[in-house]
Structures are given as structure tokens and as C-alpha cells.
Amino acid sequence: MKQFSFKIICLIIWACITVFSGFADERTVSYETRILETFNGDDDSPYRWLTQASRFASSVRNANGEAVQDSNGNPQRYPLTTYVDAWPMAAFGNNRGGDPLRSFGIRGQFDRRGYNWIDIYPVLANDSENKPFEIPIPGRVVNMDMWVWGANLRYYIEIYVRDYRGVVHSVRLGDISYPGWRNLRVNIPTNIVQSRRTLPAYAGLTFVKFRVWTQPVERVDNFYIYFKQLKILTDMFESLFDGNDLADPDYVDSLWSN
């Protein structure tokens, strides 16, 4: 009886090994950390960051209370943006003798409380028309994180990504109701599609923007938020197969262009 039970156990173990080995290639991963944006404001950065606010954004006024106009003669509205000589010491230390470090800051103000929002989105550095540009995300992204300086206000941040079908997904990065710098991290839900059933299977996401939300319980008269280093953890592994080059769109285009 014991010998029979032992044989049954061995058979079950062998079956499990066979089944799992069949799916081993699908479970292979190669995680890499990539920085999508430093928010350092360097001259050679491929992107510039612009903002857009909801309808109750306040007008900018000078010390005399007079409305400030932009270069086109229109009333200038919040938010204001700039790069500041500040950074999270937990990530970069004192940076003594290192390359200059800066962070991207926004100053916001709304005329009334509520679910106000500020969008922060990239454009190409050389685009004079300031068209929104979506940053390609390499690999199959697992999570995203960013350093955010908060003033203990009850606001929160969402990240927006677009899948290959054109669907835009919002993922809540986290609340910023804390003082000072903190690293906010979010896992990308598995229901956000990053691959196809048909070839080519790879179908990466693009980063669209991130959005700061205020809440009705919190003041919005004058606030500051700073951002540093948008980073991802992504799986760069792609299975190879006989004829995988024919699933490369660029290679196929070069073949058929002749």
C-alpha cells in the first residue's frame, strides 16, 4: 500500500513538472528599471512639461492686484511652473560636487474649493506648437513611481497611460497629504492590455500625463507641489521563435517597401 502511494505521489510530481515546464517560457521575465523623465529641466531634455487647469483656476495678479497678461495679451491663469534647485535627499543625498539637480514645481490657485484638477503633460522640446506628446513606455511595465513634495494638503495624483487600442487608463499614484518629499509608487493593473494574441505580440503603453486633484474639504487658495524622477520597473523579455524577425513591423516594412 505504501509503495502504491509512493508511486502515485511520484506520478503527480512528474505531471506538475511537465505542465509547468510547458509554460516556463511564458513566465520568463527580465525586469529593468528605466527613468522616463528626470524633471531636471536640462537643455538637452527631449521634452518640455506644460500644464492645464480646470475652469476655476485663478487669474495671476501682480503685487498691485492687477491682472497679469501672457504674451498674447490674454489673462494669465494658474498654475505657474518653474524648475527649482531642490531635490529629495533620500534619493540623491546632498549631491555635493555632483551634477546640478533640480525639480519641477507648480504653483496652483483656484477661486473655489471642489474637485479641481491640474494636468501636467509632455511636449517635444522642439515643438513650437506645443502639441501633447505621449512618451513610449519600453517593455511591459510592472509599476511606476515618482518623487513628489507635498504640503500636507488633501490632494491626490493620477497617472494616465494609453494602450495599443487607443484606450486611456487612469491609475491612482497616491495621496500627497504628507509633508515634504515622498516616493509614490503604483502597480499597473493586469487588466491594462500590454500584449496581443496575434503577432507582433508586444503592445507597449504610452505615458499621456499625470493629474493633480484637489478635494472639496481642502483649501486651494495658494499651494506648491514639486516633482522629481518619473521611473518605471518593466519586463523587457520577449520570447524568440523561428521567424520572429517577420513579426518586427520595421523589418516587415523594409521587406515590402521593395
Helices and strands, with pairings:
Blueprint (H helix, E strand, L loop, with lengths): L1 H21 L1 H4 L3 E7 L9 E7 L26 E5 L4 H4 L10 E6 L8 E8 L10 E2 L3 E12 L3 E8 L5 E8 L3 E9 L18 E9 L8 E13 L13 H8 L2
Would you give an account of this structure?
The chain is mainly beta. Helices cover 14% and strands 36% of the residues. It contains four helices and twelve strands; from the N terminus they run H-H-E-E-E-H-E-E-E-E-E-E-E-E-E-H. The chain has helices spanning 2-22, 24-27, 89-92, 249-256, and strands at residues 31-37, 47-53, 80-84, 103-108, 117-124, 135-136, 140-151, 155-162, 168-175, 179-187, 206-214, 223-235. The strands form two sheets. Strands 1, 3, 4, 7, 10 and 12 form a six-stranded antiparallel β-sheet that branches. The chain starts with a helix and ends with a helix.
Q: Which quaternary structure do these chains form?
A: single chain
Order of helices and strands: HHEEEHEEEEEEEEEH
Number of helices: 4
Largest beta-sheet details: 6 strands, antiparallel
The Rg value, from CA coordinates, equals 24 Å
Category from helices, strands and their pairing:
mainly beta
Residue-averaged pLDDT, rounded? 88
Q: Helical proportion?
A: 10-25%
Shape, principal axes of CA atoms? globular
